[in-house]
UniProtKB/TrEMBL annotation:
PROSITE patterns: PUA (PS50890). It is an enzyme of class 2 (transferase). This is Archaeosine synthase subunit alpha. Its EC number is 2.6.1.97. SMART domains: PUA. The keyword Nucleus does not apply. GO terms for molecular function: archaeosine synthase activity; transaminase activity. Belongs to the archaeosine synthase type 1 family. It comes from Methanocorpusculum petauri. It holds the Pfam family PUA. Residues 473-541 form the PUA domain. InterPro entries: Archaeosine_synthase_1, DUF5591, PUA, PUA-like_sf, PUA_sf, TGT-like_sf, Uracil-DNA_glycosylase-like_sf. Pathway: tRNA modification; archaeosine-tRNA biosynthesis.
Length: 542
């Protein structure tokens, strides 16, 4: 009998606690499979290939127990807490298309709170990618085979055994000239490294780093970015840094998610005049000296929109929201053709959706070229105020001021825009006040607090009074379920399908109301039998 509790999620990757009898394993982990699963020695047809046809699956598929085998063409009887073994995964490692297809089948056909075991697969060079795609448990078979073949294993790849003598590693195996021990320790060390990156919320950054020396992993990463599976596992926001240091950073699911909401949910504070501004190294932008100059000149006479790579469009109201307030990129002043094409699409879609009477382009370099191309695609005429390619120069600032000479000052409403992006609803915020020092602020209607800003993510946290203005993002608990602190998944009866990990939610039940943050997405809440679904911040008897 086994149990499995997920502790931390980072996309498809996760850490957890697996208990099998008296054995506790902090996952992801490498184990001695023969000791942990002795029944495998006597189980027939354990290695039915994933590519086997339906006729073979009907005859030869033996699910077994401890662990339960999986095959994409058979019904897997695994339940919450089981270990699900995916035999025959090694041949899939070099085929990105099949990898993603089978991975989708695994996620659809097994409980989200079951541990996933990939036998005979893990090497130091692929462990990060295996964990990043949702696997929790591994064995030593692949590294032991590499040792027999005289291969020295590292995260960078597999090399000749002579590397044992080159001083590239100082582990006990290298010190004692034991290739088997080195390879096992290298795998354990890589898994431990991955755990720390998951805990930091930066598994993607590690993936982009590790995949660089393996063409098949780059191909897999690119396919994953374009798959619904990756998008579905995406949290609404994070508080960790977002490092965009490679070409693959441009296709991260977070970027498309943020941009889609900016285009289709967000509503600008005003629609008469828009100023397109360059980004800044400091986040949020308004804390930078350059943007403080821009704001001093604009003085509320236009809607401020930042054009940036890799996000495309960041309205001033959303500058604190992840990933706008968290990303960092290498600054070269040059945007390559593929990057420019992606960003032009985002900017054009924004300008086509949100029709301003005037659009002022106060940009330089690649951002300016993108804005010009996007405006042409959207049928928008640009007014260029930066002619010396120095947006913060005195001449450029004077030109911007002159362009806004006859424009009326208006109060910017960041709360309305953020609520639209976050909850997809337009709220009448007339008369509301923002108090406190940015970004640690609270929003009031007269003397009643409605929301507070979560400075770590940029989201608005509704109070019970604030929830009265919103209709979605509800979690319903089952009749008879009495919460004691956080809301556990077994007690969830239903959840708004749009809820993602990190979203602010309202929990409702007979005589019970609570506001808090979703710890898992809506589908996982419904399908899981273990784990925290909502981390409660405040409760109220209804």
């Amino acid at each position: 009998m086994s149990t499995f509790d997920v502790k931390i999620r980072d996309g498809l990757a996760r850490t957890g606690m697996l208990r099998i009898g008296d054995v506790e394993i902090h996952t992801p982990a490498v184990v001695e499979a023969r000791e942990l699963f002795p029944s495998l020695a006597d189980r027939p047809f354990t290695n039915l290939p994933l590519s086997a046809p339906q006729s073979d699956a009907d005859i030869y598929y033996v699910p077994g127990t401890d662990p339960v085998s999986f095959h994409p063409l058979a019904v897997c009887p695994a339940v919450s807490g089981d270990v699900v073994m995916i035999p025959g995964w090694r041949p899939v490692l070099g085929d990105a298309r099949r990898y993603v297809e089978y991975l989708a089948a695994i996620f659809a056909g097994t409980p989200p709170d079951a541990a996933r075991y990939a036998p005979a697969c893990a090497l130091p060079s692929n462990a990060a990618m295996l964990i990043a795609t949702g696997f929790d448990l591994f064995d030593y078979t692949a590294v032991d085979l590499a040792s027999i073949q005289g291969k020295f294993c590292m995260p960078e790849g597999e090399f000749d055994a002579s590397y044992l003598e080159k001083g590239v590693c100082g582990c006990e195996g290298c010190r004692t000239h034991d290739l088997f021990l080195h390879n096992r320790l290298a795998l354990e060390r890589e898994v431990a490294v991955v755990k720390t990156w998951i805990a930091a919320g930066q598994m993607r950054e590690l993936m982009e780093q590790r995949c660089r020396l393996h063409a098949e992993q780059v191909a897999l990463l690119r396919r994953l970015d374009r798959s619904p599976l990756s998008a579905a596992a995406l949290p609404a926001v994070r508080s960790s840094r977002f490092l965009a240091n490679s070409a693959e950073s441009m296709t991260r699911a977070e970027i498309a998610f943020f941009a889609e909401r900016v285009i289709n949910r967000f509503v600008p504070s005003r629609s008469d005049v828009c100023v397109l501004l360059p980004c800044a190294a400091r986040k949020p932008y308004s804390m930078s000296k350059t943007h403080q100059k821009f704001q001093k000149v604009i003085e509320g006479r236009a809607h401020e929109v930042i054009i940036t790579s890799p996000l495309g469009v960041v309205p001033r109201e959303l500058e604190l929201v992840y990933p706008a307030g968290h990303y960092d990129v290498p600054v070269t002043g040059y945007w390559d053709r593929e990057e420019s094409a992606i960003l032009t699409g985002y900017v054009a879609a924004y300008l086509a959706k949100h029709r301003y009477e005037r659009v002022i382009c106060h940009l330089e370099g690649g951002a300016k070229a993108v804005a010009i191309a996007a405006a042409e695609a959207a049928g928008v005429e640009l007014e260029v105020t930066c002619t010396d390619d120095r947006p913060s120069s005195p001449d450029s600032l004077r030109a911007l001021n002159a362009a806004l000479k006859d424009c009326r000052k208006r109060r910017n409403d960041p709360v309305r825009g953020t609520l639209a992006w976050q909850f997809g609803e337009l709220v009448d915020t007339k008369g509301w006040m923002i108090k406190g020092r940015y970004p640690n602020q609270k929003i009031y209607e007269k003397k009643t607090q409605m929301f507070s800003i979560d400075a770590s993510t940029g989201l608005l946290r509704p109070t019970m009074e604030g929830w009265k203005f919103l209709s979605g993002y509800r979690v319903r608990i089952s009749d008879g379920f009495v919460p004691q602190g956080d809301i556990l998944a077994p007690g969830v009866a239903s959840a708004d399908p749009v809820i993602r990990e990190g979203d602010e939610v309202l929990v409702e039940g007979p005589g019970y109301l609570a506001t808090g943050k979703a710890a898992m997405g809506a589908e996982e809440m419904i399908r899981s039998s273990r784990g925290v679904a909502v981390r409660v911040r405040k409760t109220k008897k209804s």
